């Protein structure tokens, strides 16, 4: 059902500093910052030959990343994202297997302009999983 790894997301307290670290220290290609108010984050993508790193900074009141950073002040891995061909079929299969889909269970449009869903970390060995339809 799942396809390739799309990205690993890292919550950061300072997006500009984190972007500079990847671009200047590691020599990576990075995107421009993109505000996603519906998700409560601003993101920058670090392009790698085989996948991406998504740097996440809180945006607005009630950002889910703000709570994560309160527990992990210097940042850390927030979630991993896998690609799926059909997000609704994946959701229905996962729910039938007992996995919990976060939110109202309906896909939202993610940073790549494609439908995404998040799965409860307690159902996946403590890891928040994002699915993105490709």
What does this protein look like?
- This protein is α+β, with helices and mostly antiparallel strands and 134 residues long.
- It has one domain (5-133): 2,3-Dihydroxybiphenyl 1,2-Dioxygenase, domain 1 (Roll).
- The protein is built from three helices and nine strands.
- Strands 1, 2, 3, 4, 5, 6, 7, 8 and 9 form a nine-stranded mixed beta sheet that branches.
- The model has no long low-confidence stretch (mean pLDDT 96).
Keywords, please?
single chain, 134 residues, alpha+beta, 2,3-Dihydroxybiphenyl 1,2-Dioxygenase, domain 1, 9-stranded mixed beta sheet, 3 helices, 9 strands, 22% helix, globular
Question: What is the fold's blueprint, element by element?
Answer:
Elements: E1 5-11, H1 15-25, E2 29-30, E3 34-36, E4 41-47, E5 52-58, H2 64-71, E6 76-84, H3 87-96, E7 108-109, E8 115-119, E9 128-133
Parallel strand pairs: 1-5, 6-9
Antiparallel strand pairs: 1-6, 2-4, 3-4, 4-5, 7-8, 8-9
CATH topology: 2,3-Dihydroxybiphenyl 1,2-Dioxygenase, domain 1
How does the helix and strand content classify structurally?
A: alpha+beta
Strand content: 35-45%
> What's the count of strands?
9
CATH superfamily: 2,3-Dihydroxybiphenyl 1,2-Dioxygenase, domain 1
CATH class: Alpha Beta
How many separate domains make up the residues?
A: 1
Task: Describe the sheet with the most strands.
Answer: 9 strands, mixed
| Average pLDDT figure | 96
Query: What would you call the shape?
Result: globular
Q: What radius of gyration results from the CA coordinates?
A: 15 Å
Helix content: 10-25%
């Amino acid at each position: 059902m799942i396809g390739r790894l799309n990205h690993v997301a890292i919550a950061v307290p300072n997006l500009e500093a984190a972007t500079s670290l990847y671009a200047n220290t590691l020599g990576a290609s990075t995107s421009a910052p993109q505000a996603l108010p519906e998700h409560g984050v601003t993101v920058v993508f670090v392009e790698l030959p085989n996948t991406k790193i998504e740097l996440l900074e809180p945006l607005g009141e009630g950002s889910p990343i703000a709570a994560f950073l309160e527990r992990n002040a210097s940042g850390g891995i927030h979630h991993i994202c896998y690609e799926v061909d059909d997000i609704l079929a994946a959701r229905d299969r996962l729910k039938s297997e007992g996995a919990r889909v976060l939110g109202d269970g309906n896909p939202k449009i993610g940073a790549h302009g494609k439908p995404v869903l998040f799965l409860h970390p307690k159902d996946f060995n403590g890891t928040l999983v994002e699915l993105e339809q490709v």
